[in-house]
Amino acid sequence: MTIFNRLLLCFFLISINTFAQKEQKPTFQVVPLGIKGGIDEKNLSAYLLAPINTKDFICLDAGTVNAGIEVAIKNKAFKVSTSEVLRKYIKGYLISHAHLDHVSGLIINSPADSSKTVYATNKCMEMMENHYFNDQTWANFGDAGVGFPLKKYHFQTLTIDEETPLTNTTMTVKAFPLSHVNPFESTAFLIKNGDAYALYLGDTGPDAVEKSTDLHDLWTAIAPLVKDKQLKGIFIEVSFPNEQPDKFLFGHLTPNYLMKELHALEELAGKDSLKGFKIIITHLKPPAKNIVKIKEQLKNQNDLGLKIIYPEQGKRFEL
Ligand SMILES: [Zn+2]
């Protein structure tokens, strides 16, 4: 081998190595503000997501906001004041559905918040306008709906399946419908930054129980991103342990149903495509003994090789 060839080979190997490292490099950062599926009002579903090395966060659901920021500051996830995180770092809210455990933080913090956009699909936005920001149960901080709009928030209705830029960030969002006790709708948000994606699901029941194809349709849409390793993780709920009877699921998943759904996704994305894939489990419902049970069951049933992540309030992690 000539020196030139050797150099060429060396260069080639270095390039491959750099490329491989690039693929492994995290692209998103997450700071959970609240992680539980009920009861504890200082720790309800809300997840801050931003491209890594930026402060441009979008808040995925907003059950708990202020209390979560305080914990995050205590854990050194942020080095500024609570008010600065709320007003400057959070660039907008994506609300999956209007159940109170997903929006109460947004409502209560609205007087202290800065001007930004609230994104939701049509039905969810209508519910928020008619029942919360209506000048009766709360002031209308939006720029649409009933009463006197204070226009602090821009209420932006998302069209299903249409890519929409998230203002003041480099990210975009695409919304997909979910069934949360049919015909009540919830939403999944596919967030894109560059060529990297993260998927967040609001509350959802399994297709089999909901008599719906929403999850299957979602899996079909994102399977190519799993295959190409562009999707960095899926936030998805598991609310109850397997012992919960179908008729008392109330539009939620158990470990059995989660695995069934993820098997459907693997079938579409290819064998072993979910090996090491990050699944972030959300909306675990107290009591604590149920949560222990859910974690045990998921561990025992994880035949896909998933990397299961249990987010903790105020603890930053990367995707
Ligand atoms: Zn719900």
Determine the strand fraction and express it as a percent band: 15-25%
Straight-line distance between termini: 42 Å
Q: What is the rounded Rg?
A: 20 Å
Number of strands: 14
Bound molecules: zinc ion
Structural class: alpha/beta
Question: Helices and strands in order, then pairings?
Answer:
Elements: H1 3-24, E1 28-34, E2 46-51, E3 57-60, H2 66-74, H3 82-89, E4 90-94, H4 100-109, E5 116-121, H5 122-132, E6 153-158, E7 164-165, E8 172-179, E9 185-193, E10 196-201, H6 207-210, H7 214-227, E11 231-237, H8 255-269, E12 278-282, H9 288-301, E13 307-309, E14 317-318
Parallel strand pairs: 3-4, 4-5, 5-6, 10-11, 11-12, 12-13
Antiparallel strand pairs: 1-2, 1-14, 2-3, 7-8, 8-9, 9-10
Helix pairs in contact: 7-8
The structure holds zinc ion (ZN).
Comma- or semicolon-separated keywords:
319 residues; alpha/beta; 7-stranded mixed β-sheet; 9 helices; 14 strands; 24% strand; binds zinc ion
Provide a brief overview of the structure.
With 319 residues, the protein is α/β, with parallel strands linked by helices. The protein has 9 helices and 14 strands.
